[in-house]
Each structure stands twice: as structure tokens, then as C-alpha cells.
Amino acid sequence: HSADAQRTDLMTITRFVLNEQSKHPDSRGDFSILLSHIVLGCKFVCSAVSKAGLAKLIGLAGDTNVQGEEQKKLDVLSNDVFVKALVSSGRTSILVSEEDEQATIVEPSKRGKYCVVFDPLDGSSNIDCGVSIGTIFGIYMLKDEHEPTLQDVLQPGKNMLAAGYCMYGSSCTLVISTGNGVNGFTLDPSLGEFILTHPDIKIPKKGKIYSVNEGNAKNWDAATTKYVEKCKFPKDGSSPKSLRYIGSMVADVHRTLLYGGIFLYPGDKKSPNGKLRVLYEVFPMSFLLEQAGGQAFTGKQRALDLVPNKLHERSPIFLGSFDDVEDIKALYAAQSQG
Ligand code: P6P
After folding, report:
1. CB 3.0-4.6 Å disulfide test: which of 93, 159, 219, 281 passes with 268?
2. What's this model's pTM, rounded to 2 decimal places?
3. Cα–Cα distance between 139 and 116 in angstroms, integer?
4. Which stretches in the chain have pLDDT values below 50?
């Protein structure tokens, strides 16, 4: 491609998804329609987050703005937008959101064959200081055309058809996989389009960064303690890994995906299942890392093999470069042999 051709041959996410759809001749485009509604939600949240500092949207729920209207916290607003966008797509039957204790069962006239699990604004506690935050989502197919039940979403992550995140930072970046690799798109605000900027993302086989909240070290188990020790004081004479921890999962995972290394949120004595939620944090990120050639491990098993029993259950997670996750798997294997 000449530079000019590349500039004018815009690969938007809409075009990309339609290309993917054309690989499934029997497809009626339902999946493309669903994705276009998720993209719409991301564009809205990107706009709201970027204006938040000015519009005092960050305030606690219950604040009133200059018009005296009840101000919604950004995460509540984002949740409302995604639920409405997904229901109006007419392609979903059951929704699970980090913001809602109960699943949303879509009214019969608007039902479709997909289930969506999502965290509408993960890391929103960081927004007041301008740290990147994000939306995380995963898509399952209904088990069969019947009354939607929780069994349709309590599926192992390996059954997901697609997963992705949208990071709201210096730019708005949507990273998605539909099962054939991982692609990244950046929002061009002047066009209102997500343009393909990171085609076919592959995570380096081994990285030089580890990412964990060292403040929890007192409560870690032996395997995590040993692994982090290895990162800081390598025995084989290699140089120590660098510590990078942003404290916003989407930002930490995005850096891991692009630069390599490992992201850890281990269980510990206080919280044996760690902090991150299985359905809409652990599974979508694990799906993406595997699709990019990395791994995702819970301390006991491949993360995507986990079968959730509750909508909001948590799991420890170790994800990132293939070789780095192998190292911690070996330490957990040794620990489980006692
Ligand atoms: P900690 C943000 O609150 C979040 O849910 C994730 O985005 C992030 O990875 C994690 O919690 C950070 O948790 O305990 O290190 O502050």
C-alpha cells in the first residue's frame, strides 16, 4: 500500500466486523449488530469520561449539577448506557453487569441469541486522578432457544464467542477478539469511528515486567511470594523484572498485552479468591491473552476452564506472556504437591 492509499483505505471496526462476518456465510449479521451496539456504548462512555472533569460528572451520586439535576456517577451512567444499548440491539437475552446484583433478563419481544457479561467502567475509583479506566465485556451464545436462565451465563470462559475491552485514556482504544486473534482500534474523534491501529496483536513470549499490588505481600501464599522474589532477585543471573502497577485492570492488562510480562491478582489469606470477578474481568482478559498467544491461570487451572457458580464470584488470576505464566504454574504445581 502506498502511504496515501493506507490513509484513505480506512479499516473501521464496522468494516472489520463485516469482513469477519463474511467468513460465516450462514450468518444473518446478528453478531455484527450486537458488536455495533457495544461500540456505540463505548463511544458514549469515552465522550462522558473525557468530559467528566469539566462537567463534574465525577461527583458522588446524589450531587446535583448546575441545573440541579440528580448527578449520576460515571459508572452508574455507563451501566445505564450499556444496558440500554444492548437491550435495544434486539440480539441479547440476558445481561450480567458488575453494577447490578441480579442479571437483566431482556423482555421477550427484544430477545436475541446472545448473553453479554460486562463491567461498564472498571477502575472507576481511579478516574478522579485521571488514570485510564475501561469497559470490559464478554459474549456467550444462549445454550438453546428457551427461557433465558442464569445457566446461560454460568458457562466456562472457553465458551465465550468474543471478548474485549475499551480503555479510556489519552486515547480511546478498543481491543477485541472474536476467536481469530486480537485486534486493536483507536477512536478517531473527528470521524467518530474506531480505526484499526493494532492489527493481529501477539504478546511477546516472555516479558521484563511484573504487575502486582505488592501492598498485599504480607498475605500472599508461598508460590506467589517465591515468584515475586524470583522477579526481583533472579537466581540465574538475568536482570530483575521491572514492576509496573497502575491499579486499573484494563490499563495493566493493555500494557501487558503490548509489552509482555505478567499481571497477577493472587488470592491471599484474607481473600482466598482474590479480588477480580470471573465473568466480566477474569474471563474476557484471559480470552484475549490466549488469543494473543499468552496464558491465563488461576493458581489451580487454566482460567478459561473455570466453571462459575455465582454471577459475581471472584478468582485469583495470573495472566500474560506464555513463558512467564509457565514459571508461576510450576511454582503452584510444586506447592500443591506439598
Ligand atoms: P487493588 C479497580 O478497582 C480494580 O477493580 C481493577 O481494575 C484493578 O486491577 C484492581 O481493582 C486493583 O485492586 O487491590 O490493587 O487496588
Report:
1. 219
2. 0.94
3. 5
4. none
Q: What local confidence, expressed as pLDDT, does residue 5 receive?
A: 65
Q: How many CB atoms lie within 10 A of CB 298?
A: 23
Regarding the beta carbon of 189 and ligand 1, being less than 6 Å apart is answered no
> What is d(CA 333, CA 338) in angstroms, rounded to the nearest whole number?
9
Q: Which of 125, 214, 246, 265 has most ligand 1 atoms within 8 Å of its beta carbon, as the pocket-test mutant?
A: 265
What DSSP designation does 40 have?
A: H
pLDDT value of position 55: 63
For residue 282, give the nearest of 274, 272, 292 by alpha carbon: 274
Give, for ligand 1, the residue of 136, 168, 224, 248 to mutate: max count of ligand atoms closer than 8 Å to Cβ: 248
61 by Cβ neighbours in 10 Å (0-12 / 13-18 / 19+) ranks as exposed
Q: Indicate whether this complex's ipTM tops 0.95.
A: yes
Give the pLDDT score at 126: 85
Going by their DSSP bridges, the two strands 114-122 and 295-297 should be labelled as unpaired
Question: What confidence score (pLDDT) does residue 6 get?
Answer: 61
Residue 32 has what pLDDT? 94
Indicate the angle between helix axes 249-259 and 283-291, nearest 10 degrees.
10
At 303 the pLDDT is 98
Please state the atom number of ligand 1 nearest to the C-alpha of residue 250.
7
What is the distance in A from the centroid of ligand 1 to the CA of 66?
32
> In degrees rounded to 5, what are phi and psi of residue 92?
-125, 155
Q: Are 169 and 288 in contact (CB under 8 A)?
A: no
Region for residue 20 given its phi and psi (left: phi exceeds 0; alpha: psi -120 to 50; beta: otherwise):
alpha
